[in-house]
Amino acid sequence: MLPGQGPVLKLSRRRLEATTEEAIVDANGESEQRTGWFSMIEEHLKLPFETQVLGVPVTVEGVNMTEDETIVALCRRGKHRQSIPIPDLPLPVPPPAGAEWIEAYRLWSKGAL
């Protein structure tokens, strides 16, 4: 399976729900929940890692939260840099340590958890 063509991780529903609970514990409202997700992704995702965006190799160097509370991956290829929303970020195979936080966030942001 190519990056971005489907789930790279096969996490149990129980694990996804536990990850979600940990990310949004004590959060009041969606804004605080997004901040909780950002904190967990930033803390647990092993950086940097290589992946492909539109078939082009990039290095994911970090994560950030924009003013409109979008969690983004900070990608670099040579001197070019681009932010990619975390739900749209293709993960490599095998995924980096901590990628389960991205997968759980993807499902949460779609309302699937």
Short description:
The chain has 113 residues and is of the alpha+beta class.
Overview of this protein structure:
With 113 residues, the chain is of the alpha+beta class. It has one domain (13-109). It has three helices and four strands. It has helices at 13-24, 29-44, 99-109; strands spanning 49-53, 56-65, 71-77, 80-85. A four-stranded antiparallel β-sheet has the order 1-2-3-4. Helix 1 (13-24) crosses helix 2, helix 1 (13-24) crosses helix 3 (99-109) and helix 2 runs antiparallel to helix 3 (99-109). The longest helix has 16 residues, at 29-44. The chain is globular, with a radius of gyration of 14 Å. It starts with 12 loop residues before the first helix and ends with a helix. Residues 1-7 have low confidence and may be disordered.
